[in-house]
Amino acid sequence: SAFYSIGFGQYLATLVPMPDLWMLSDVQVGALLAGAIFVGVNYIGAKETGSVQTVIVTILLGILTLFAVQGWLSFDFETLLGDGGLAPLGYGAILPGTALVFVSFLGYAKIATVAEELKNPGRNLPLAIIGSVVIVTILYSILVSIMLGVVPWPELSQSAPLTQATELAFPGGLAVFAVTIVTLGALLATASSANASILASARINFAMGRDRIVTNWLNEIHPSYATPYRSILVTGAIIVVFIAALGRDIEVLAKAASVLHLVVYALMNAALIVFRETDPEYDPAFTVPLYPITPIVGIVLSLGLLAFVGTQELLLSGVFVVVAVVWYFAYARKNVPRQGILGEYILDRGTELPPTLVDAAVNIAPDGATRVDDAPKTMVAVSNPLTEHALVKLAAALATHEQGSLLATHVIQVPDQTSLQAAAEQRDRISTTSRQLLADAREDAEELGVRVETRTVLSHQGLAEVFDIACEHDIDTLILGHGGAKLAGGRVEGPLDELTHDLPCDVLVLDGQQFDATEILIPTAGGHSSDLSATVALALQDVVGANVSVLHVSDDLDDGREFVETWASEHGLQHAELLVETGDVETAIEQASAGRTLVIVGATERGLLSRLVGGALELSVLDELETTVLLAERPHERSLRERLFG
């Protein structure tokens, strides 16, 4: 980002006089101005950033086409061959030149950093990367050839070559106007690259914060713009430092950036091999052709170019690598919650692999990290196409917060008169809907970046089978649709199940076809399941930036305020809006839910007979609310007396 901003500053200085400022040159001042503008654009949001990029690229292509046409008319092949032919410094200078200009081709991998914001990334991401590489390489070759056919290479400007070539290519009367337009095009080109680089860098910081490689403080989402604004501001601060420190020697900055990205490209190719060889569930929508030749060649070429970079740049890049390693062992290793795929593969085969390799995997593994298979598991039971998307969206948000996986299950309930064996023989016919339902669930979960498994089960039971599957897979959180049941009963199980069984895990029941966690209301009077309501709200606050309000209804305002402040503090909701009301509970909930998008309520602690005799007035209002309701119930030991009488 700093490199592109400095390029912007160089062309800006040829178009508009820029003052020197303290120890900064005019180019550095222009670069700082560019960096500030595009940090601001990214701060506002990816949609606005994409719109700016579209406008910039459209105008830029028009200007470059104008230059290419006029430049071709002024092109002289003898000037191109000129002093020393096509390789005046010898063919041995081509690879060092490649290492230097490699920084100009860094933007393509950055496309992948916004994959979470793409529609159908399995198709569109490869098309975007491969297509842009091919198109831009062709344009780059054409424009550079034209410049060298207009201006002899020894005379080509080091700071603004496009402007110089334009001045010579256009007739005298049009030269000044053309230089201004083409310089504007060069500004747009560097601005586009700087803008895209800042967008990608901020997303990388955000992803590292989410994975706890850096502090999760970076994950804060702006309440108005829904962007990782802290990550973007940190990126902007780093850009300022690089511009101020290295802005006078752009070649060093360019080569250092090339070195770091060559190392990253080599690691990306190695990571592809690791995924393909160690993860049996790795099934990408796009597969690299000629595997494994392609990634191996990528590794060799990326690392091979390092030999053609200067010692100073290698040392500077080495400093960054050392800092990254120190950061991992000093901070990230203590906080990263999950073991990597390669480390897990090595540890699973500890008796088959060399002890030195196994010891290395143990020594660098994150402290206390869970294995992928041991990560928290969320299960969503889908049965209705109308509610599938809402349920999966909720489940994916919770799985993302827990750094865990998702199991999507559809139970096909078979009539008691039909044997399961007979049903299994006709599985293909009766499970058509199930396949489509789970395919939709998988697509929704993968679009949200969550690892998902799917399972269809034939059973004579309904909810009981769902609970059995949750026990079998050691599920931590189970998410269900309400299935038409009334929520006024206040519990997940039916009356008989409530008396005879315990829940297998935390259970959430979503009553609604839409899921929007923008504004959350938690009515609470305390209780075991109320703790789960707070846990879910905190997770949604972390993942989607939800605004949380807590409601408590009390006979006395002072007592109520003391209770809700204590409860919110104990559950990590100190910054939530605290509401205290007196009077009728149903009325208070109904009024407080106005303007909210989700009401999360803990299951009642009252016993079955108490609810049957006295009713559950405080929960009957939930069936009347227009707002989506989420019933949360956490399992805990209760005696038969407690189950009956509360």
UniProtKB/TrEMBL annotation:
Identify the keywords attached in UniProt to this record, alphabetized. Cell membrane, Membrane, Transmembrane, Transmembrane helix
Q: Where are the transmembrane segments?
A: 27-45, 52-73, 93-115, 127-153, 173-206, 227-246, 252-275, 287-308, 314-331
Report how it sits in the membrane.
Answer: Multi-pass membrane protein
Q: Does the keyword Membrane apply?
A: yes
One short Pfam name that applies is AA_permease_2
Q: Name one GO cellular component term.
A: plasma membrane
Indicate where this protein resides in the cell. Cell membrane
Q: Where is the UspA domain?
A: 378-510
- Specify the superkingdom: Archaea
- Name listed for the protein in its UniProt record: Amino acid transporter
